[in-house]
Every structure is written in structure tokens, then in C-alpha cells.
Amino acid sequence: MGDLWLLLLLPLSLAAFHGVKACLECDPKFNEDIRSLIAKLVPSEVPGRTHLLERQIKEMIHLSFKVSHGDKMLRVLAVHKAVKLRIWLKNELYKLGNETWKGAFILQGKLLDVRQNLELKLKEILKNFSEVACSEDCVVTEGPILDCWTCLRITTQCFRGEYCGEEDSRMAENREIGLFLILLTEVVILGSAWLLFHICVSHWRKMKAIRRSLKKYLEKKLEELIGMTDKEKDDSGIRK
């Protein structure tokens, strides 16, 4: 039965995983454009070209996923800002395409610089937008807002709760209950250990007392037997 549930849930989990996107990937053409632009950077005669392209494309495409999914506060962004980031990235790749080919190692270094700059820009834009959208006077730029986790457009201009790093009261309550249960478990374990130790010590003392009493009893009986034996010897000697 467990295997059957696993087989039923596996397609759902895979579907959910493939459905997860990020700020830049919400544009249906983004992945296609990045693949095309990076592919133009590497001449066809370069050894290991396919593997090189696959790795560079994967790292470039999944960068925004790593940034936006690392913190709930970096989840929302104005649509026009996401568009500007995509345009900036494409322009950077166009510039690299116009440069003279100097080898795979040099290209990887330049693409690394582009990714690092993109990551800094994306983090800064997401953080700045979150601070404005979560502020008390909340004044955001007009236009639709993008939920980078679902690629849905949000009409709300101001945010509260987990989007702003505010803890959900239910989650806080659950955590307090969890901490209480952990503390209660530790107390029960320590109490049980102390009780077991007390029982063991008491039993050891009782057994020690019993052994002491038994030893005295046996010594007394032995003395009585020895006395009786000596008396019998004396009586038999008198008779002779």
C-alpha cells in the first residue's frame, strides 16, 4: 500500500517541482532567449561545447530561482522591474557575443561576472521593493506586481505578513507549543532517569543490608554448630 501511494504522489511532486519558477523565468521566452544568446557565444568547433553550454545555461537560468526562493521577503517584484532586469541581462550577453573568442576558460569567467552582477542587482531590487511595499506609508510604483514563486500578477500594492518577514501568529503559536512539548519531554526523561536511579540505589542498599544480615546469620549459625560439635566431643571424652 505504501508503494502504491508513492507511485501516486510521485507525478504530483514532480509536477509541482517543474511548476516552480522565479522572477526572470516567468517570461515564457526568457529561457529560450538565454539559451540562444549563450549558444552564440561558443563556436561550433569548440571541444565539449554541448556540456559547456548546458552548464552555463543552467547556472544562468536558475540564478533568479536561488535568489527569490531563498527568502519570502524577496518573493514579489514590480513587473516592469523584472522586465528591465531581463533586458539588462540580454544586453550583457549581446556584448559578450560581439567580443572576439578567446577560449572557453575566458568565457566562463566573463559569464561568472555577469551572473554575480545579476545576483547583486536582483537582490538589491527585490529587497528595495520589499522595504517600500512593506513600509507603513507604502508608496509603490504603479503597475502590476509579480509573485516570483507562482508567476501570478498581484493587484495588491502593499503587503503584510510573511511577505514582509512578519511571523504568522499561528506559526508562532505552533512553535511555542513545540518548544513546550520538547521541554516537557526533557523533564519526563530526566524525571524517569532520576526515579530509575533512585530505585536502583534503594534496591542496592536493600540487597547490601540483606547480604550483611545473611552473613551475620550464617556466622552465628556456624558458631553454634562449632559449639555443639565441641560439646559433643567433650561429652564423649567424659564417658570414656
From TrEMBL:
Pfam families, sorted: IZUMO
InterPro entries (UniProt xref):
IZUMO
The residue range of the signal peptide is: 1-22
Q: Which domain of life is it from?
A: Eukaryota
Q: Which UniProt keywords apply?
A: Membrane, Signal, Transmembrane, Transmembrane helix
Q: Where are the transmembrane segments?
A: 177-201
UniProt xrefs under PANTHER family:
IZUMO SPERM-EGG FUSION PROTEIN 3
Say which family it is in.
Belongs to the Izumo family.
- What is the protein's given name? IZUMO family member 3
Native organism: Lynx canadensis
Species lineage: Eukaryota, Metazoa, Chordata, Craniata, Vertebrata
